[in-house]
Amino acid sequence: MQYRNSLLCLALLLGLSDSAHALRCGHSLVDLGERKLEVLDKCGEPDTVDQHIETRTQQNGITVGSIYPNENLGIGVDQQRYISVQVVVDEWLYDFGHKRFRQLLRFENGVLTDISELERVH
User: Fold this and answer.
1) pLDDT tens across 12-64, in order?
2) Secondary structure element (H or E) that encloses residue 6, with its range
3) Residue 30's closest CA among 22, 19, 18, 40?
4) How far is residue 72 from each of residues 2, 33, 65, 76, 78, measured CA to CA in Å?
5) Among 68, 90, 101, 114, which is least packed, fewest CB within 10 Å?
6) Domain residue spans in the chain?
7) What is the pTM of this model?
8) Residues 114, 120, 22, CA angle at the centre, nearest 5°?
């Protein structure tokens, strides 16, 4: 019996997490990885939209020179190069009313990457 109660408590705690992998809009389910147009079709226009660009640094491994010592092209070392990548971030806020938590959807380059549950507004 105690094991069963523990599982119930764990399920409740998981259900109250700040970040979700899916969102229900009417009869449709929105999942991570969907594009903005798919979310618009399922949920309609968001209440607010914010867009900004983030610059991130990524590591690229490249080989410089030749691996053959007789060629006069270099010494054949692997070097780590860092490149800056710009990511377009859209944040959409949906307020489904006072009976449901507000939902913040984060898109990176048009793809849904995060769904966060926010507090209710009274």
Assistant:
1) 444 444 567 899 998 999 999 999 999 999 999 999 999 999 998 888 765 55
2) helix 2-15
3) 22
4) 73, 47, 9, 10, 17
5) 68
6) 20-117
7) 0.66
8) 30
